[in-house]
Amino acid sequence: MFPVIEHIDDVLPHIEGDNGIYVSRYATHDTIDYGHHLDETFNSAMRRECRGLKFDKSGRLMARPFHKFFNLGERERVEEIDWSRPHRVLEKLDGSMIHPALVDGGIVFMTRKGITAQALDAGSHATEGVRALARDRLAAGKTAIFEFTSPDNRIVIGYDRPALTLLAIRDNLTGTYTDFEQMHEMADHFGVAVVGSHPVDGPTEAFLNGVRGLTDIEGYVVAFDDGHRLKLKTQHYALRHRTLAGLALEKNALECVVNDAVDDVVPLLPPMAAERLLLYQARIQAGISRLEAEVAERLEPLRGADRGSQARIINETLDKRLRPVAFKALDGKGARTAILDILRSATHSQTRIDAVRDLFAMSWDGEDFEIQDG
After folding, report:
1. What is the pLDDT averaged over residues 282-296?
2. What strands, in cross-sheet order, belong to the sheet with 96-103?
3. Residue 193 contacts by C-beta under 8 Å, 6 or more apart in sequence?
4. If pLDDT is split at 50, 70 and 90, which confidence band does 47 have?
5. Would you tell me which CATH number, out of the four given (3.40.50.300, 3.40.50.720, 2.140.10.10, 3.30.470.30), belongs to the domain 69-238?
């Protein structure tokens, strides 16, 4: 089912060229992950393993988190799947995938990308049981895979307290997933929480068809006993996830403001993200009002002057980016509309936004809205 991986050299020949997969080299380990998704990124079993593979500096595989699996309907339609194969339906948690690795003899928690701020936060909340289970499985050549959920690590769904929940255990060499019941027994032994398994009355495909309309959950993962996995997200979650992810690009945030769509978007966002978008809107609106007043003040003494004098004074005294606004205002067109046109034009690229950023005192940190896949 899965390719055997012992060493980084087993993987490198499969990821040559521009396919969205890259190797990151750090002082204590190397990571193979994907940065962007092209048509050919996951066109082989080995490439589907490239979701945060970790290797020590000698090249030996030290951790093997989830393989890349897809949304139901993305590669396989419901009716194309053999639902008679043994499987179970697991709750899909809305947090960050975390796994342990041994670095210099100590347990270190990592995300797909390595030792990130999220990984450090997760590690600070790892119980003795989580650490003991992680170390026990690493000693057996296996990787325990957790989901870290927290009020401070909210993606879309909110959680009351920080927690690390065991999702799966993989064999580092073969990629085989530990049987769910066996994994549950191990977790119980160490006092570790396990992802919920959802009972299904009747055909699984009928249950899944009803999932899309649910709220307050991300969705479910169908885990087949042979290791194949599929995920299904609710429409409620998918809409909010897309909205949040889109705001990683400032031009999308600016477009919301310019099109007066912030009130429609805010209900789809987590509270902190909504607050940041509203603050961005307030700054831009204040900038629009300030510029409108500045143009009006410059034009007031020019009323009644001939066009040549008006043009000369405007060109001498007004920021060149605001001169078209002034001329339109003199022609009886609204200055505010002309200022909004500047912003509307800026939504086409980050370069255009940067060219007018100081006019409106705009500030946007897209990293606050970036979402790591699993």
Report:
1. 90
2. 106-110, 96-103, 142-149, 163-171
3. 163, 164, 165, 166, 187
4. very high
5. 3.30.470.30
